């Protein structure tokens, strides 16, 4: 029997407490599976007095998380503080420098500093694992880094933010507007008091940057990532999409387009009956297309105490088993800068919703603009024929270049009879 | 840079050729990902003259696959011969004895001799990997052995045979009967000339036995596995299930029930909108429920050259990376004999389809039998009111013990007005 693997945990929020509970509950199984005892040596959090519902007196309490690094009894640091800078970054850097393995759930940190940290981990010959950073309980990182490693990956798509998926699902089921549903989600604890990180797509973008890096062997690159959130989606968009047989999902997407890559986070329409169309509520999904494996996908709970702790401890088991894989699947010094293009080069069918004043000629004006931009209309729905009241015009298009579609929508937006900005979303087929 | 990893491939059918193609096409990527060159040294197959569509002259051709073991230049044996006995078993045993790693797609071999081979692999400190044996391109073995390793697994359910799923999907879409669709599947190459292995559930049972072993840390046990195929499913069963909002799937299922385990392969009804209900055609799926992670599932192509080769080479990359995990996730000597119970102890809702002669009193007779067995009916459909012609009675039940339901069905089967055997299937909720 090998010596125990001794860990220090920094951050005792929901996930940290989940990790402690899991390691305690499954101590014997973890030992069987990893061939070593997994022991918590010390813990650290900002507030020692906070009521956490579990007894922590068996572990050394460390005020400054950096002291975990200095403790020679600790082999692995579990970083659950969060944030791309500050304590979390200092801690992970110091731990790697000290030759300790690191397990983290910190997507922001890795999305911004992943390559530099991977270089350090390689140099020190230690693991930097982040299964918990993307899609919680779903072993998506492992799938891309190992399970699908024999493939040339062509595309990855994911529903990566449970809060947004919960809000969009709830809007569809209840017919209510974004603000209403967001408020309820906040009351229930499914959304933060400041929801920007989730509903503006930033959280999903951090996760996508990591998936892109893994899929294509490139450095995580937040700057080349176009991000659109879901605040502008209205109850009527949801209703129209449903009527057309689609569901609206905030999709993270990275894809090879010729010699270039595109990556974006944006709400899209997906067919109701498709793999991603059926992923509802707080569930997350990651779909991968590889040249040999074809299309495969993984679905599960993306957040919360249990699923995230499950992912953190899976990483710990890997480390205990002596399983060391480069952080992003290839040696960090071989990771290239991605050759990214704007999503303007994508081709696809589109959904567009325009609210207009109901006057003769408005449809003709819109149609003329579409024609001038080579946009061919597939179907039109017109709603709300209350004289004098605004009217919704909803259309889907045949295949068109995203750049042309955007230009057309922008022109349409400038028409005097058009109220507000048209809502434009790409339709993503399976 | 480490020394190359040198492999010998035994069996050059669809999968073997796929592996050769993949290793050639992605040589550079495999080297980047595993840190070593992956080189094919020698190959072996029964018929050297068979046209295989690729050039094999660069590899040593070995007539007797056992000679691959004697070749000191070979580090890893890839066994793609198949079958639970004979050459495949001899080859894998000899390879492990010689201290060579083994990658295999052979579910039958591992379902029958998995424990004994795992003991040998542990003793020799080599890997015995079988990702390709279950659900082809889906990294289900890795997910259970590593991704979900922090959990107490409560249940695994899977759609594990693409041929059956293709036939059932096609029956639903076309309204045709089993025999018709099977014939077409055979003509298209989706089903073997002798389809028994697939349609009688044996192939799915082999795969399930491996998932059960991984999930619960027990020895693969084909003897405790109740297996029912899909030959008896009629077009009208499919139509009734569809009308009730369900789809019929051949499910492999293992589950903790108190201190005991059950495992079975049998056709079940699943809600059309559920995770498994949406898995159609040749797709496979594996759904796992763990105490921390909750429910998660993986979907993808279960067979064919590309997906299976992808799985074989993923195992090769793991070995090249030096990743060694016990064959079934825990040391083989710690694997116990499973404490299995019959599926009779399961409780569930049931679907029953009885064909009767249309005479007064038949429904009363059936109802009386159900009452005597404590089976409470939820819904009844009666069809085919052509005087003198047989009538279909379809019912779904409230929750009832499978043993009681089976006894009732068997009694009903004995009624003189009942034609043939009632078709009884459990309804599996998410």
Biggest interface, chains and residues, is: A-B, 59 and 59 residues
Oligomer: homodimer
| Rg of Cα set of chain A | 24 Å
CATH architecture of the largest domain in chain A: 2-Layer Sandwich
Mean pLDDT of chain A: 95
- The number of helices of chain A is 14
Q: Say how many strands of chain A there are.
A: 17
Helix- and strand-based class of chain A?
A: alpha/beta
Largest sheet of chain A: 6 strands, parallel
- The CATH topology of the largest domain in chain A turns out to be Dihydrodipicolinate Reductase, domain 2
In helices, the fraction of residues of chain A equals: 25-40%
Total of domains of chain A: 3
The termini of chain A sit apart by: 48 Å
- Spatial shape of chain A: elongated
What is the CATH homologous superfamily assignment of the largest domain in chain A? Dihydrodipicolinate Reductase, domain 2
Strand content of chain A: 25-35%
Low-confidence stretches of chain A: none
Describe the strand arrangement of the main beta sheet of chain A, using strand numbers. 3-2-1-4-5-6
């Amino acid at each position: 029997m090998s010596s125990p693997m001794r860990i220090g945990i920094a951050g005792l929020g929901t996930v940290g407490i989940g990790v402690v509970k899991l390691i305690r509950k499954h101590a014997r199984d973890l030992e069987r599976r990893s061939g070593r005892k997994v022991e918590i040596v010390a813990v650290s959090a900002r507030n020692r007095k906070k009521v956490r519902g579990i007894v922590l007196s068996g572990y050394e309490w460390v005020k400054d998380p950096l002291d975990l690094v200095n403790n020679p009894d600790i082999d692995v640091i579990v970083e659950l503080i969060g944030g791309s800078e500050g304590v979390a970054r200092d801690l992970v850097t110091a731990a790697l420098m000290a030759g300790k393995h690191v397990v983290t759930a910190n997507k922001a940190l890795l999305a911004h500093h992943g390559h530099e940290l991977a270089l350090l981990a390689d140099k020190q010959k230690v693991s930097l694992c982040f299964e918990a950073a993307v899609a919680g309980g779903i072993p998506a990182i492992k799938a891309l880094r190992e399970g699908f490693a024999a493939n040339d990956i062509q595309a990855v798509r994911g529903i990566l933010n449970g809060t947004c998926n919960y809000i969009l699902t709830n809007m569809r089921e209840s017919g209510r507007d974004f603000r209403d549903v967001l408020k309820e989600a906040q009351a229930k604890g499914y959304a933060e008091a400041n929801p920007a990180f989730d509903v503006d797509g930033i959280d999903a973008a951090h996760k996508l940057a990591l998936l892109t890096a893994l899929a294509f062997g490139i450095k995580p690159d937040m700057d080349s990532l176009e991000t659109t959130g879901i605040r502008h989606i209205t109850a009527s968009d949801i209703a129209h999409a449903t009527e057309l047989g689609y569901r609206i999902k905030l999709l993270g997407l990275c894809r090879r387009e010729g010699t270039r890559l595109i990556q974006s986070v944006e709400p899209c329409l997906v067919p109701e009956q498709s793999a991603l169309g059926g992923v509802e509520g707080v569930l997350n999904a990651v779909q991968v297309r590889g040249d040999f494996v074809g299309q495969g996908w993984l679905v599960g709970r993306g957040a919360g105490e249990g699923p995230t702790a499950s992912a953190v401890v899976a990483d710990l088991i890997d480390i205990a088993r002596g399983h060391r894989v480069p952080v992003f699947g290839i040696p960090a010094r071989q990771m290239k800068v991605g050759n990214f293009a704007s999503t303007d080069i994508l081709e696809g069918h589109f959904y567009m919703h325009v609210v207009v004043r109901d006057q003769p000629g408005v449809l003709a004006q819109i149609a003329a603009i579409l024609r001038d931009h080579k946009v061919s209309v597939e179907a039109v729905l017109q709603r709300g024929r209350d004289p004098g009241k605004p009217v919704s015009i909803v259309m889907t298009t045949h295949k068109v270049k995203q750049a042309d579609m955007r230009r057309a929508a922008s022109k349409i937006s400038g028409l005097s009879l058009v109220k507000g900005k048209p809502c434009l979303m790409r339709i993503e087929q399976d």
